[in-house]
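Record passed on here:
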Amino acid sequence: MSAEKYSQKRWRSVRNLALLPVLLFIFHAFASCVSEDEFSDTPQGNFEALWKILDEHYCFFDYKKAEYGLDWDEVYRRYKSQFAGSMTKSQQFEVLANMLAELRDGHVNLYSPFDVGRNWTWHEAYPANLSDTLLRRYLGTDYRIAAGLSYRILDDNTGYIRCASFANSLGEGNLDEILYYLSPCRGLIIDLRNNGGGLLTSAEQLAARFFNEETLVGYMQHKTGRGHSDFSELQEQRLKPSNGIRWQKKVVVLTNRSVYSAANEFVKYMKCSPLATIVGDRTGGGAGLPFSSELPCGWGVRFSACPMYDRNRQSTEFGIAPDHQVALSADDQAKNRDSIIEFARNWLGN
């Protein structure tokens, strides 16, 4: 295919290897409904291609129209007039990235050789509620590390696990060793703050340690056509308990606005565990499985394609509220105390 022509059949799955059989089925469904329209490698052609890719395959149009009045057709009319044949690549990128920002979705990105278009307002406009200095104080220097998790027993016999990412697979043997080591503790804290996600399989692996029976934890859908409302029936997400060591005491999960994507799903799962309490700030969201495509100029675009819901059939795209809203106070920071960790310790003690 020449550099000037683009076909929307050029699909590639992106990033998330979790739920592989489901994703392969979704990919097949997407490929079967992709149009044959071609666009030229011009500012106008790239704009038309990008708008149409999202128009036919993005999964949250109806939801975001209801939430904040998003009108994708109005976005088309407003941005179409900003494109001219004399635009530089940088100018094209800026306007296209601004158009994508109208979706308010951290899973929507535009990739060029010189920049990445992104929308991070889901956490940038909120307090961090996390201090690296305080984390080092609680972890110390003699903490243990396994499968990317840092853990130790705090001085009040509370177990503490710092889970900063789900980017890597968690070994079942590692999780057995961690929970066995922490088993004498009165309760457990899982500090998920600033976990931007990664593999859903890793989130499921960890959550499965806090369930004793198979549990309905949510639902998902896939696109079945080009219309904004063309989706399959809701498909159940069920979490099976681990065959390894399972935690049987209280557990508190710490959250802030930078908990996103697979980490947001982990919080959704833990909301269904009778052992768990969620403490901190509302999560950042990210409830759409991402896929990617390509523009005529070769730039990549990633977007949310398959919506996921909690067990009450509610979208978690804009985050999950904690059971207890707790912020990191300036007064506690001055005393070298993490307000959110201390609340969790008191909760476990009571």
